[in-house]
Amino acid sequence: MALLEKILTSSERVYRCLVKIHPKEFRAEYEHEMVQNFRDLCREQLDRAGSTRVLGLWSQTVLDLAASAAIEHLRRKKPMNTLDQDLRWDLRYGVQMFCKHFLWLLKYTSLALIGGAVAIILAAWIWSGVRIWQKEKPVQQAWAEMTGKTPDAYFHAALQQFPRSGMNETARQLEELTTRLGILNPMPNRLYGGQRKNFVGPFDTLDAPTYVVSQSHKPTDDIDEAPAKLQDYLKNHRADLDVLYSLVQRSDMPRWETDIALLSRAPAPALFYHRQLQGLIALDILEGTRKGETAAAQVALEASWKINQSLRERPEFLSQMVALSVLDLQTGALRKMEHVPDIWQKRIGLAAWQESFWRAMELDAMVNSRDMTDTDAPVRSTSWFDLLVKSPFGRPVRRLVGIEIVEASHEALAAIRTNNFCVLSPHSAVEQLAGSRSTWSLGTQYGYTNYLRAWSALLEAMTRVELTTKILQAKEARNSVATRDWPEQLKEMNSLLCPEAKWVHEITPDGSIKLQCLNLPEWLRKGFPQSVPLTYSLRAKS
Amino acid sequence: MRQAKRDPEELLPLSLSVFHILVSLADQERHGYGIMKETSARTDGKVRLGPGILYGNIKRLIEDGLIETSQERPDPELDDERRRYYRLTQFGQRVVVAETRRLANLIGMARSKRLLRDLKFAGSRG
Fold first, then answer.
1. Domain check: are A210 and A309 in the same one?
2. To the nearest whole angstrom, how far is the Cα of B126 from the nearest Cα of chain A?
3. Scanning every residue of chain A, which has its alpha carbon at the shortest distance from the alpha carbon of B55?
4. Does B47 lie at the interface with A, CB-CB under 8 angstroms?
5. A329 and A181 housed in the same domain
6. For the segment A471-496, what is each residue's pLDDT rounded down to a tens digit?
7. Full domain range(s) for residue A12
8. Does residue A30 belong to any structural domain of this protein?
C-alpha cells in the first residue's frame, strides 16, 4: 500500500507540474479541478489494477495535456468569433496543431527534459547529502561498537593482517599435479603449460563428489563399491595421488594468491576446483576404508585437511563458504573410518568455524561498501536511477550506498548475534530484517541477507559435524575395550548448537548402536531428510 | 435573453467531445470527474475525456452559454465542496436536442438507403 501511495503522490506531483504548460488564465480557472480529477483517475486505476495501469493512464494524459495546452495557447493568440469555430478545437485539431508547431514544442520539450535531468541530479545530490549527514556517524559508531574499529580502520587492519601475496611453491606444484589428474583451477593467468584455463579435464565427467555425497547420506557405516569408472580412475592415477599426498604432507600449507585491496576483483578460490579435488580425495578415503586400508585412508584425510585449511585461513567470505562445502565431504568420509586420531574431533569443532565465518562476513561487508564507494563496479539498482548512479554525477549516491551497505550488514550481523536460532529460523530472521528496512535504502540490495543464509548453512553443517564427532567418540570407546562390543556408557554430548538438543545412544538387541540427536529446532530437523540423517546405526564388530 | 434569440443550428455539428459533455449533463448536474466517468461508462470506455480536453471544452461551453456552474450541491456532506457542478442551460438543451435530431436525420437517411441493413448483413456474415 505504501508503494501505491507513493506512486499516487508522485504522479500527482508530476501532473501538477505538467499542467503549468497551459495559459495562466486557464490554469487560474481550472488547474485545481484538473489535478483533482487526475488524482481520482489515478487512484481508481491503482485500486483496480495496480501500478501497471497507471502507465496506460499516463500515455493518455500526456496526449491530452499536449493537445489541450496547444489548443489553449493557439486560441489565446487567435480569438474565435463563433462557437462553431471554437468547437472545432477538439483533440484531432489539437494533434494537427501539435504537428504544425512541432519545432516550438520540441524546443520547450528539450528545455523541459534538460531542466528535468538537472533537477533530478540536484535532487539526488541533496538527498544523498542529507542522508549521508544523517547516517554516516551513527553507522560508523555502531560498527565500531560491534568490532572495536571504525569501518576504515577495520579495513586497513585487514589489509595489514592479510597483505598481498602470490601463490607459494606448494600450491604451484599441487596445481601441476591436479592438472595431471584432470582437475584444473580456473583462476586467472593459469596456463598449465599451454593448456587453456577453461579446459575441462577428464575428471570432470567422473563426478566423484556425487558418489561421495551419496555414501555420506547413508545412516550406517556401509560403503557401496564405487562405480567401475571411478575405481579405474583411482587405479590409473594411484602414483599421482600418492605424490600429491606426499607433497602436501612434507611441504608448507598450499597458499594461493590473496589481494583483498582489489575488493570485488580480488582473487578467490574456485569452488569447482576444490570440490572436485576434495571429492577425489574423499573417494580415495572411502575406497581405502572399504578395503580396510586404514593407514592409507588417514594419509589422504590429512592431505585433504591441509589443503582445506589453507582456504579457512584466507580472509574472504567466499573462501569460508568453499571450505564449508569441502568440510561436508570430509565429515562424510570421516564417519565411515575406523581408528581416526583424536585430533579430528577438535579440528572439526564448532567454535573455530563460527569465529572464522564471523570475521569473513565482517570483512565482506567492508569490501562491498568500499567497492561501491571507491570503484566503478556495476551498480545493482533499478531503471533510470541506475544510470544516474553509474555516471560521474552519481558519486554522492555511491557514497551513500556504501554507508547503507555497512548499515544493513551491521543489522544482519547483529541479528546473527542476538537471535536465538534454536527458536527462530534464520529464514524468519531474514524476513524480519527485510521488513524493518526502508525501501529507500539502496544498501538493502547488496546481499546482506546472504550472511544470515550462510549462517544457516553453517549451523546445518555443524549439526553434521556433531553427528560425526559422536560417531568418532563411539568408535573410540569401542576400540578401547577388549570385548569390541559397543559400551553401554558413552561420554555425554550435549549439542553446542542449542541447549535443549542432546545426542543420545541406544544399544539395539542385535548389538548395533543407534545414535541420534533429540530436541533439535524444527528448521534444522527439516533440512535433514534431504541430507545426512540424524540417526546413525553402527553394527557390532564381528 | 441572448441565448433565447440564438439559433442552435448555428452551432452544429458539435464535436464528439462537446456532444458527449452535453449528453452527460442532460439528465443531471455533474462535476468534471462525474462527466468523465459517465461518458466512459455510457460508451463502454470507447470515449475517454482527459481533464485537459474536458475543461477546455467546458470553458468554451460556459462562455457560449450552453452550460453554467451550479450553486446547488447534491449532498455537501458526501462531496468535496471545492468541486464545481455544471448543468445545461436552456440554450444548451436546445443545442443538444438539435444535434441529436441532426444525427437521427443522418441515421434516417442511412436507413432509407438500406445502409444499416446491409452493414448488419455484412457484419453477420463476417
1. yes
2. 30
3. A30
4. no
5. yes
6. 888 888 887 776 667 777 777 777 77
7. 2-100
8. yes
